[in-house]
Amino acid sequence: MSRNLKVKVWRGKEVGEFTTYNVPRNESQTVLDVVIFIQRNIEPSLSYRYACRVGMCGSCAMTVNGQARWTCRTHISKVAHNDELEIAPLSNLPVIKDLATDMREFFDKWARAKGQFKGTLTRHEPFVKVEPASKERKAADAGIECIGCGVCYASCDVVSWRPDFLGPAALNRAWTLVNDVRDVAQADRLRAVAGDAGCHVCHTQGSCTERCPKQLAPTLSIAGLKRKVAQAAVRGEL
């Protein structure tokens, strides 16, 4: 393939502009390949983030033609229109520089949603046996493969409208722990996700589920939290 790509890349911070670069188009080329080519051959000062390049770490997520995606697993042939491409940082996150965003608020919300496992056993005690076929284990398994790439968070309109909203990833994490029979912080966790910035703020639009690169369904996890919170409230546990 001999033709070139016309690539518009965001340069700057919150205030900036798109700069256009001409990049050779190749077979099996990914969006991350294009970004790396620009940085190594045209614009050495271009800032971006990546690590594994094989869809395991999630750190290369950016906005490609208006949609949040993993750039290492997104092939140019799937997203380029008339050999043109637009690459920007993830939405709903502060821009550090160019294509790199500040993920602190994203992960701080995991903490506010009580996304840490809390147990009571020590290493000197027998392991708790969790039945793989149990309803709770299956519910946890359905959401446990999240790697924190931020694609769902950047795709969430509710986060755009309500910046305090905990977001799909944090609530999905809370759901997996709500279904962990070994965890002892269930009441605190349900109170955390029942607040004004919690699960009931979700409008169930499904953008997080539609765009999750891991094919998870945060929308269903959030719906599960809504049921759990309602049940706990009826029982007077919140």
Question: Can you describe what's shown?
Answer:
- The protein has 238 residues and is α+β, with helices and mostly antiparallel strands.
- The protein has two domains: 4-101, Beta-grasp domain (Ubiquitin-like (UB roll), Roll); 104-234, Fumarate Reductase Iron-sulfur Protein, Chain B, domain 2 (Orthogonal Bundle), CATH 1.10.1060.
- The chain is built from ten helices and seven strands.
- It has a five-stranded mixed beta sheet with strand order 2-1-5-3-4. A two-stranded antiparallel sheet has the order 6-7.
- Strand 1 and strand 2 (16-24) form a beta hairpin.
- Helix 3 (104-112) packs parallel to helix 7 (168-178).
- The longest helix is centred in the C-terminal third of the chain and has 17 residues, at 218-234.
- The chain is elongated and about 65 Å long.
- 38% of the residues are buried.
